[in-house]
Design a protein that fits this description.
41% of the residues lie in helices and 18% in strands. It is α/β, with parallel strands linked by helices. The longest helix is centred in the C-terminal third of the chain and has 19 residues, at 164-182. The structure holds pyridoxal-5'-phosphate. Residues 25, 27, 48, 69, 157, 198-200, 214-217 line the site of pyridoxal-5'-phosphate (PLP).
Length: 224
């Protein structure tokens, strides 16, 4: 199987048309596959598991921008903070505070996205839409606790559904929530990041305003 370079070029081109970033999701895939895509020009890669990310990072070029897109446990934050480019799945203030603490220790600020629960499925992580306002207020009111992070936008996952209208509505909800609640947190001069869209729905995501899509299986093949 290996990496699908034709598909890569096609998706990369779509992203350029929408001024969106393509994150190649390489979880479970070997370092050699990442290297193949890197050699084709890809710099943004996404991983879901801390140990796997740390192992891969140590074997691959240092100009790769690593995105942590999985469910992050507070006790593992310290392993990725030294090098991670963007942490997508922040779904609690406790986790955000821990990222801030570890970043501050290293004298840096780490960019994060708040994950919002938009799917009508029980299993997906994230803040409830109704909690977002209070969450943002808490972050703003305690710069001591959250000074080591920059909240750069939102991340979401739509329902795993063939119903395009439902997926579209969930994407629209994410962008609306972002515009309503998050803009005041975004560092001055930066565009907010709306991270949504995967192999099955990236085209719809781009049309609905995503500026960062996370695509795995279309590039690397199915994960068995
Ligand atoms: C695995 C994963 C992806 C990529 O999924 P594909 O369907 O393979 O494109 C994107 N986002 C998250 C959060 C993931 O866990």
């Amino acid at each position: 199987m290996g990496v699908n370079l034709e598909k890569y070029k096609e998706i990369k081109h779509r992203c350029e048309e929408f001024s969106a970033t393509l994150v190649a999701v390489s979880k479970i895939k070997p370092v050699s596959d990442i290297k193949a895509l890197y050699n084709a020009g890809q710099l943004d890669f996404g991983e879901n598991y801390v140990q796997e990310l740390v192992d891969k990072q140590s074997q691959l070029p240092s100009d790769i921008r690593w995105h942590f897109i999985g469910h992050l446990q507070s006790n593992k934050v310290k392993y990725i903070v030294p090098f991670v480019h963007l942490i997508h799945g922040v779904d609690s203030l406790k986790l955000l505070a821990e990222i801030s603490k570890q970043s501050t220790k290293l004298g840096k600020r780490v960019s994060c996205l708040l994950q919002v629960h938009i799917a009508n499925e029980e299993t997906k992580f994230g803040f409830a839409a109704s909690d977002l306002q209070e969450t943002v207020s808490s972050i703003k009111s305690d710069p001591g606790k959250f000074g080591g992070v920059e909240v750069c936008g939102l991340m979401g996952m739509a329902s795993f559904s063939d119903d395009q209208n439902q997926v579209r509505a969930e994407f629209q909800q994410l962008v609306a929530l972002g515009k309503e609640h998050i803009l005041s947190l975004i560092p001055a001069g930066q565009q907010p990041i709306w991270s949504f869209g995967m192999s099955g729905d990236y085209e719809l995501a781009l049309q609905e305003g995503s500026n960062l899509i996370r695509v795995g299986s279309l590039l690397f093949g199915a994960r068995l």
